[in-house]
Amino acid sequence: MSQQFEFKVLAKDGAARRGEITMPRGNVRTPAFMPVGTAATVKAMYMDQVRDLGADIILGNTYHLMLRPGPERMARLGGLHQFARWERPILTDSGGFQVMSLSGLRKLTEKGVVFQSHIDGSKHEMSPERSIEIQGLLGSDIQMQLDECIALPAEKSEVERAMELSLRWAERCKIAFGEQPGKAMFGIVQGGDFPDLRVKSAEALKAMDLKGYAIGGLAVGEPQAVMLEMLEATCPVLPAEKPRYLMGVGTPEDILRSVARGVDMFDCVMPTRAGRHGQAFTRFGKINFKNARHAEDTRPIDDQSDCPATSDYSRAYLHHLVKSGEALGGMLLTWNNLAYYQYLMAGIRQAISDGCFEEFAQKTQEDWAKGDIDPI
To answer: Taking a C-beta distance cutoff of 8 angstroms, is the pair 105, 115 a contact?
Structure first.
């Protein structure tokens, strides 16, 4: 394994890229989907399961881990990898999105943001320097700059103000991060739904010569077409030799369309959250196990899958678990969903290597559109 952080593009098909990030803790095959481990756990999953499904990297959340159990305690306990029993790479977000969206009261200044915990109302301060310090105490391999993520829609002047502040914070994060061999700090492109602001942000971050670049402030309720327009404006500006990470995205269709525009990394709570609410992602589209049509269906979700949750349990049983509120229902459907996401990413990577990504994407979407397996 490399002792440095490196990224190589191994194949291209149009704007879609297959690549690999190498780090001391392991390699990350891209395009990659990172399961979200918000509070040192991928909800309803054992880490061994997450690993065996093919995930090369997971995401940890700085805001939640800062509040509980606390970064200094985490460091004393050996860091997030040891704490959660995950030996492969971990990316941590900066905590900025959660500060803006979850904290009840907050005060934003040039220095940073003072906020109240959504758990107990206690007061905390998050500056660019403190965010990087916390991520270092957690021991993460890829650390994100602190940024201001505002809700859309918003006035252009307000979006530009937040974008400019995020750029100044990126400079401070870079200084705070310093030189950490084998690790990386990514900048975050902001600019809301204004292409010119996205380009301005991307160009400024590119000049900082960071090891990777994220695209933030999207997948927050805007139409998919707007998100794709922002990617089309942003990705060509970002350096081709650095990884590109679209934060908080998304649905399988979002991922397909974003890969086609040059994105390399994704994360989203959708597969785990949907699983806990009775919904399965499959080769045939989404299946809602609250629906009574599954009550006497003895077939598995997909007998061609090598995931036990997908191939070994009947739809009738899954329906029963969901309707009964049994924890096992959410566990099995989460397992299925994360398996499908990794199956999709593996298919994407292979299609790019084979030079048939467009055909793969079209066939995948046609299968989703057909819906579930033929009715019994």
So the answer is: yes
